[in-house]
Amino acid sequence: MAAAVECARDANGVAVLRASGELGGAFGPEMLDALEACVEQCLSDDRTIGVVLAAGASGFFGELDLEWLQGMASRPQGELLTFVERAAALAARIDASPKPFAAAISADAKGVGLELALACHRRIGAAGAGYAVGFTDLRYGLPPMLGTAARLSAQMGPDAASKLLRDATALTPAAALKAGLIHELQPPAAVLEEATRWIEVAASQRPQKVADAAISAMLLPSRTGDTALATREFVSAATGPLAQDMVRTLGLSVANANRLASRPAGVPARSFRRVGVLGAGLMGSGIALVCARAGMQVTLVDMSEEAAQRGLAALAKQEASGVAAGRLDAIESQATLARIRPTSRYEELYGVDIVVEAVFEDREVKARATRQAEAAAGPHALFATNTSTLPITGLAEASQRPAQFIGLHFFSPVPRMPLLEIIRGQQTTDETLAHAMDFARAIAKTPIVVHDARGFYTTRVVMAYQAEAFDMLAQGVDPAVIEAGGVAAGMPVPPLALSDAVALDLIHQINLQTARDLGAAYTFTPGYAMVGRMVEDEGRKGKKSGQGFYDHAADGSKSFWPRLRDFASPTLRIGMSVADARDRLLAAQALETVRCLEEGVITDPSQCDVGAILGWGFAPWTGGPLSWIDRMGVREFVRRCDELVERCGSTRLEPSGTLRRLAEEGGSVYGASWPPA
User: Fold this and answer.
1) Hey, which bits of 31-111 come out as E strands?
2) Fold (topology level) of 5-239
């Protein structure tokens, strides 16, 4: 593979280095070789007065090559250490250079790419150019590796640097400017020109004297010590099981999903210019917004013009808040909102490429919306239903074209949540599935594909998390211990607080619908029976009513309902440690994930782990529920589950026969075939 770092010097002696070609998106040994050679050439060439590191089409010198990094775990540790030391030395060479270096950032500068930019003396970004800046390698448990902690601390102070170095958020250009990661923003077409001009001015004001080099050398020892420590910390983290699992899931598996690796072969790609969205509530308006941000024209339909206008007004308020906070560009935001047309007329859907239905979670309501929208949109439009629980095959019975009917489960809040769960009904064709995946890529969502089943994959596992908490409460476990167990498990919201936010009456409604659908095959668990009594007898519907497991005050504060423990379990009082509560909640999710694999609801362990972390916030440090099982070891996981079943009596924690066989054979979840033969 050719190492592609282009080097061009203009008539005034300003050299521009830019990564391009196959290596433009990955920073590994070949990129380092090429960049090292170019930087040394520029520093040794008297005709070069300064250097601009410029973004290429794939980003600012790429992110860390994760496939290469994962392979290094099986190599002698000294190889990775040598690579990191060389990369850190290159950053130090740039930082201490007597010739000025500027970073011209007009594409993603993330992870090691941002670290290289921070070694430059000036960072100039493109305003509103739709790229991101951030220490995103933190998502994989990887600390900065180029001596960046000391460098950033020297630039902006230890407190500000420490805050940035703990945050894996990918910032917009405006937010990166505010944080001090970028010095100035220029129109996209002027970024390189401004960086070149800055080099010329800086070179004229900074004579290349021996004294300057001596001063730089005096500054290096302390940084060298910091850098040596940082490189060792990086290598230790990168070769450990925690980072390896996070790299596999959040790096490689997410990348595979984003490039649609499981897309049906032989189906031509489809583009989407016009989208119809049914329902201007929280979900529908969020879907409309992400489509409009992707450049699509959106027809937002609700039951009345007033309701549709309210949906657009809510989006305008949300966008204004983002602009005021520096997260969004004002001009881009205005253009986004202008692409959304609110209406109550289904006729305005004619000619759309796809209809996304996001009306109330009720079969009859969805059936009416489906019939009206299909009649108006025309025969070529895909029809997607946004639902979290209702089986797609059943909803498709209202469709005149069930082959073009598919489920798209968005997550709330839609603009921020990256996952899209694509659910294939029994009559959904390969072509429809492929085009739904094209739509996911067009709106920058990470898709996972599952087969039709009640609760699909993500909702089903989240419900297991909640249901285990309900059963603990009904067994007499202290609610404070249950919530502490959720926090200890790394979940973004503990289970009882999450249930209040979802709404207890909705959980009860779904439970009743499931009981009606399954008949005698369904049995109410003690926990779900308790939730039913809370809703029906006490009117405690969750956060929206101010009363659920918690009493919710108007100022946002909350405290447990004083009667909760007595109501949930009048006679039992079971003592349980936070560690046991944590493991029950983690195991409930992991075992339900395995059951989904066994039943063929989802067949790829990597997509399970991607969906868990991106969809409902399963602790990223685990790599996902299946990576967590494999890291613990299937045999040890089964032993721990058996221990919890014996102690707590939870049938939900009973390991399946498949897991027991894997434990006996010394196998792994990732190494097995799913569904099992």
Assistant:
1) 50-54, 63-64, 101-105, 109-110
2) 2-enoyl-CoA Hydratase; Chain A, domain 1 (3.90.226)
